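To the wet lab folks,

You asked to see what we're planning to order before we commit. Fair enough. Below is the target structure as C-alpha cells, and below that is the sequence we designed to fit it. If anything looks off to you, flag it before the synthesis order goes out.
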C-alpha cells in the first residue's frame, strides 16, 4: 500500500479499515506504531495520523504504559448494534454443540474476512484438559491454524499463493511461520482431505478442520476441533473429520454467499 496525500476520500477510509484489521489481529497484546506501520506498509507519519483520528473517534485506544494500540470502545458498541442482523452463529451453533458433545473436545467456528479468519463461536467438550487456542473475536491471517487452513484448502493454488503472500509480513508472529511453510501445509491438507494444525501455532495441541461452503461452493466458514496432541492420533483425526463432514451436509444448504456473522 503506497502513501499519498492525506484526506484523499475513499483511500483514507481503506487505510483506516486496514489499520483496524491489523490491530484486531493482535488486539490481546496490542501493537506498537512501528508494527502497524510495517504490517500496513504505511509510512510512520501516515500511520500515526490515522491512529490519532481513530482514537479521537473512539475506534482505537492506546495504553499509557506500553504505548501499544488496541481497538476502542466504539468498535464494541457498533458490534452490539449490528449483532441482531447476522445469524450465521445461530445457524451453526447446534452443529458445534453436537460436535463438542461427541468429541469431548473444543470446537471452533471461523469465518473468512478478506485475507483473515475470525473466530465467531467456540464450544467446550467434556474432556477435562482444554485447548483454548482461539477466543471468540480472534482475528488471524488466513493460513494460520486449522480454521484458516480449511478456508484456503480448496481454493485454486494461484489464489492460495496470492492470499498467503499478502499476509507474508504477519505470518512470522505465529511460531515463525512463512509463505513456503503455509503452502506446504496446504498441500498436506489436499492430501489428507482435511486441514491439520499440529503444533503450528500452539505446541502440545493439535486441531483439524473443514470448510463450510455456501450454496455456490465458496468457502465462507470453517469448523475445527482442537485437543491436546496425545488425543489426536491419525485414526482419531479421521474420525473427527468424518463427524465434521456429517454436520457440513446439514449446514451448507443454508449458507448464502452474502452470509456474515
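Sequence we intend to order:
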Amino acid at each position: 500500500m503506497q502513501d499519498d496525500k492525506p484526506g484523499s476520500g475513499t483511500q483514507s477510509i481503506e487505510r483506516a479499515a486496514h489499520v483496524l484489521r491489523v490491530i484486531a489481529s493482535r488486539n490481546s497484546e496490542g501493537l506498537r506504531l512501528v508494527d502497524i506501520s510495517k504490517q500496513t506498509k504505511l509510512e510512520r507519519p501516515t500511520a500515526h495520523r490515522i491512529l490519532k483520528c481513530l482514537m479521537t473517534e473512539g475506534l482505537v485506544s492506546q495504553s499509557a504504559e506500553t504505548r501499544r494500540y488496541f481497538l476502542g470502545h466504539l468498535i464494541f458498541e457498533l458490534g452490539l448494534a449490528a449483532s441482531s442482523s447476522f445469524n450465521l452463529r445461530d445457524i451453526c451453533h447446534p452443529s458445534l454443540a453436537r460436535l463438542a458433545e461427541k468429541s469431548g473436545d473444543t470446537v471452533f467456528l471461523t469465518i473468512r474476512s478478506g485475507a483473515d479468519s475470525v473466530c465467531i463461536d467456540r464450544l467446550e467438550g467434556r474432556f477435562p484438559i482444554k485447548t483454548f487456542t482461539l477466543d471468540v473475536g480472534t482475528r488471524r491471517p488466513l493460513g494460520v491454524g486449522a480454521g484458516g487452513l480449511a478456508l484456503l484448502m480448496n481454493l485454486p493454488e494461484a489464489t492460495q499463493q496470492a492470499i498467503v503472500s499478502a499476509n507474508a509480513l504477519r505470518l512470522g508472529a505465529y511460531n515463525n511461520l512463512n509463505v513456503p511453510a503455509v503452502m506446504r501445509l496446504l498441500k498436506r491438507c489436499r492430501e489428507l482431505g482435511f486441514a491439520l494444525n499440529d503444533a503450528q501455532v500452539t505446541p502440545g495441541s493439535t486441531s483439524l478442520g473443514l470448510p463450510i461452503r455456501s450454496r455456490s461452493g465458496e468457502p465462507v466458514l470453517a469448523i475445527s476441533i482442537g485437543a491436546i496432541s496425545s488425543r489426536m492420533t491419525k485414526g482419531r483425526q479421521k474420525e473427527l473429520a468424518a463427524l465434521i463432514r456429517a454436520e457440513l451436509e446439514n449446514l451448507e444448504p443454508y449458507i448464502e454467499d452474502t452470509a456474515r456473522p
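Structural context that might help your review: The chain has two domains: 10-80, 86-254. The chain has a mean pLDDT of 87.

Thanks,
Computational group
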